[in-house]
Structures are given as structure tokens and as C-alpha cells.
Amino acid sequence: MPKGKKTCPKCSHETGPRAYCCPKCNYVFVFKPKSKEAKNTKIIQNVNWRELVKGDRIKVTGGPYFVSKGEFIPMGYRGRFVVEGLDKNGILAWGIDKSAGFCHIYMGGDIQNPETGVWKIKHKLIKLKQKEVVND
Question: Domain ranges in the chain?
């Protein structure tokens, strides 16, 4: 089978990978269901971190890093967190899932520590919000 194709289990017809049903016999393909969180979570980008309040859920990437012999070593936090509070340089938060534990997510200015050589730069973040269910 060529790359980027899938075969219908009913009639063996090859079709595109994103097809919902077979164009030849109308067999409906089964797709992996979305997780409960993916169905119920709305993503809000371009969030001012100073407007976060206790209990907000955020997804964090990027942040401080170290360069050693041309190798980039990330040292920031990654994953999903629940905001506990704020201070002048960042966000105090509890990790969710594998990022469990209490942490300080740096959101201050870009600086390099002269002693260690670690570059402190802002983390990138998006806010996660529960989708509102409308009952008609």
C-alpha cells in the first residue's frame, strides 16, 4: 500500500487517510475517539499572565535554557499547571499529570546569569478553559 493511503476492510479499495467513509462501498471508518479533556477544553491564546487568578489552568512551554558546546538544553517547565498565585517575576503553580509538584514559572525579562550561563527567558503559555455546555 502506498504511503498516505488506507484500505477499506470491506472491499479492499484504497482511499485517502482522512476519508470518513469508503467512496466505493460507503463503509464508515472507525476513528479513535477524542479524550474527555480534548472535548471539554477550550484554548485561549495571547493571555496576559498578570491577569491569571488562582485556579486557572494553563499549558506552558519554552522558558530558560542553557547552551553547552553548541547543544541547547531546555531548563524551563513544560506541561499543564493550575495557578496558585503570581509574584513580580512569574507564576506560582501546581503541576498536573507528569509535571506534578509546585513550581515557579518564570515570566520576567530576558537575562543571562553570568555565573552559570543560563539564559532566563519568558515561558510561552496558553490558558485552558472548560467549554460551556448550552442546554436548549
Answer: 1-31, 36-130
